[in-house]
Specification:
This protein has about 150 residues and is mostly helical. It folds into 2 domains: about 60 residues; about 60 residues, no CATH class. The chain contains 4 helices and no strands.
């Protein structure tokens, strides 16, 4: 058998790896049933669905011609990963509003095009939704602003 669509092959492999990873991590928790779900139920079902989807997508790589995988883009990957790490480090000292600003702007630098207005609009929409949903809606104990500004 020959792989004719490398993008499908690698995407399928990624789905299978994540799905099996969820199942392995959930092994140590109680499964429960469909009526009384335990902590392992959702990750196990989701992992199984991801792995099955990976088999379907990966299987297409053997029967249908597809695109070849291009070069690995290290700079965008590193910037997006850096933005997530900086968000985690900045959340407590500068609050949700500032940490989200860092997340969005550093992550956007990884894209092919960077438009200040578009990124600012995305930030405003995301921070508005995050504050409304997580701080006010769910009541999560996030600090919104840096400590010297107040809550």
């Amino acid at each position: 058998m020959k792989v004719t669509g490398s993008k499908d092959f690698w995407a399928g492999l990624m789905f299978i790896a994540f799905g099996l990873g969820f199942i392995v991590v959930a092994r140590d928790y109680a499964m429960g049933s469909a009526v009384r779900m335990g902590p392992a139920y959702f990750p196990t079902v989701l992992g199984g669905l991801l792995a099955a989807l990976g088999l379907v997508i990966g299987g297409r790589a053997f029967v249908a011609a597809g695109e070849r995988l291009g070069h690995f883009a290290l700079r965008p990957t590193a910037l997006v990963l850096l933005s997530v790490v900086l968000f985690a480090l900045a959340l407590r000292p500068i609050g949700l509003v500032g940490a989200t600003l860092i997340l969005i702007f550093v992550g956007a630098l990884g894209g092919a095009e960077f438009e200040w207005r578009e990124v600012a609009l995305i930030y405003l929409v995301l921070i508005g939704f995050s504050v409304a949903a997580f701080y006010y809606g769910l009541g999560l104990p996030f600090q919104l602003w840096p400590a010297f500004v107040g809550r």
